[in-house]
Amino acid sequence: MTTSIITEQDLVQCRRNFAPPGMRHFSFIDKLIYLNIYKPFWCDRKDDLRWLFKNKWDLLENGNVVWAHLVQANELLFEYGNYSCPASVVFSPSPKDIINLDILAQAAGRVFDLKHTTPTDPVLLKIARALTDEFTRTFGVKLPDAICSEHNLYEATCFISQKHLPNGILSGSVFPVIISQKSPYFCVPLPSRYWTGALVDYWYEAAYS
Asked: For 157, how many CA atoms within 13 A lie in the half-sphere containing its CB?
């Protein structure tokens, strides 16, 4: 599914819809239900995702909204249900970085190709092992120029709640995420209530392409 219907203005409008960092005001009901990111039962003391949940409200209230491209995700996210699962994404953490989505897609493809390989580069090896294992978390791993030289891109584990997707399933590959303002880059999708109409249309069309 092409992303040609998505423009940088969609991201700008998503940021406006959500409000700038530090200026977001959520209702009690939204904080209790819609926006709340619940820690799943399997996320124990040995799972590094626990740090995301400890910082979830700081992330929602103060994180930056940027584009992300999917690398891989738990297969449950592609099925209808009420699942919350991790995924791997690539992104530029700088809200000032105007990134070409085709370049972001190419980088995501190169990262995925690392799965089941043993690169000599220690950074790429770390990502390759995490993608292959599927239970190892990564937060803000800077991608080397071999993956992308045009932008400062990072790979990270993104925790996805299906209630925050327009149609309840992971159907598109590009979506806005909220990331921490500084490392480690905790990452969750921007809830679809704050998406633009064009972005929602892209998501639904992707489900049937």
From this structure: 24
- Distance from the Cα of residue 132 to its chain's centroid: 19
Beta-strand runs (E) in 57-119: 64-73, 84-91
Which H/E stretch holds residue 197?
helix 197-207
Angle between the N-to-C axes of helices 101-112 and 122-133, in degrees from 0 to 180, rounded to the nearest 10: 80
Q: Which residues contact 23 (CB under 8 A, 6 or more apart)?
A: none
Q: 152 — phi, psi (to 5°)?
A: -85, 90
Q: Is the pLDDT of residue 104 over 60?
A: yes
User: Residue 48: CA atoms inside 13 Å, Cβ hemisphere, count?
Assistant: 15
User: Between 8-18 and 197-207, two packed helices, what is the crossing angle to 10 degrees?
Assistant: 110
pLDDT in tens, 17-32: 999 999 999 999 999 9
**Buried-exposed string 61-85: b where 16+ CB fall within 10 A, e elsewhere:** bbbbbbbbbbbbbeeebeeeeebbb
Q: Cβ distance 154 to 141 under 8 Å?
A: yes
Instruction: Please provide the distance, in angstroms rounded to a whole number, between the alpha carbons at the two ends of the chain.
Output: 6
pTM of the model: 0.94
What's the token pair of residue 74? 């738990």
